[in-house]
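<tokenise_the_fold>
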Amino acid sequence: MDDLQPVEVALTALLDGVQALPAHTLACASAAGRVLAEPVHARLDVPPFDNSAMDGYALRHTDAGQWLPVSQRIAAGNPASPLSPGSCARIFTGGEVPAGADCVVMQERVTQRGDQALMPADIPEGDNIRRRGRDVLAGDGLLPAGQRLEAAALGHLAGQGITEVRLRRRPRVALLSTGDEIVDPGESLAPGQIYNSNRPMLRRLLERFGAELVMIERVPDSAEGTRATLARAAQEADLVVSTGGVSVGEEDHVKAALEALGELDMWRLAIRPGKPLALGRLPSANGGQARFVGLPGNPVSSFVGAWLFLRPLMGALLGCPALATLPMLTARAGFATRTGPRQHYMRVALEFSPEGIFAHAFHDQNSGVLSSCIDADALAVIPVDSRIEVGDAITCLWLHCD
């Protein structure tokens, strides 16, 4: 257990046996950012009828090059009558293409005099018509289970007239802070104390990853107080997240409390930053288990650990592949570095250029320099015992979760 473990082994231990949470029904108006528990099938063709892609004139393409009488005017939202032979229809974007017409010519190409319009000679059949069912056909799969409902997906549901969907329950998370030296913003600082930067940072990350925060507390700096708080948190949450208290100091009580109450699956990882990170399980209500992730107290270590472990765990609990899989990309290093026995996660800014993607490392990679995370686009993943030179291809964890 004291041997340093790689990230892949830790992730396997963390996700072992995790099942997606139960589903419930919710109105689409309140479903933004949530994850579908069941696939949704289309009820309607989209578009529901052939319609014009622009303002212009609808006609038969065989009548091109002629003066045609304008037999009707079709605005979006109004029904169209069948097109009289040898005529055209004034039509506007989104308007229903009348039966008998097989093309639309844009108004800029047409000369109109009174109720007559001169059509250009080169109009192909089907021009400027959006055919019925071009986007979706009734009965087809609209959205799969595991889809996160962001802007376009919500619009897709609305386009079908769907008002309710089956969603995964959001994972309930207890977020705990350890250490008597940690003080909440707004309180006075005593000598040796610092403000709690981890709590708001992790709260925002967890919410972005789809969690519901049900408990946010400070853990007493005592073995008994730590055990009591962890036990209570496990009764309320699917996941208990703590910061600090997982190293080897005399005041680090979290690891011992976890071992006393539940199971310690992993401790001390071969990563930098973030070596002192504990993963395990705590007994929860109804005889189940709550997952436990003990992040380091240093804010950058906590930030990195959240992306490496909390995001995939949220994805597994939500049955959401897009969250469960870390978004990786390949870039060219704009820096030189070397690593020892721990895999390094370096904060980098990405430059997208015609020559490719370049990753530029922030100068100070110390685990206490949280400012480097503000403008970081990615974490450059540098394997153990590696030497990277400028221009080398590297893998980056893209800090993107939509």
Summary: The longest strand covers residues 343-353. The chain has four domains: 7-21+170-324, 23-46+134-168, 51-130, 328-398. The two ends are 36 Å apart (CA to CA).
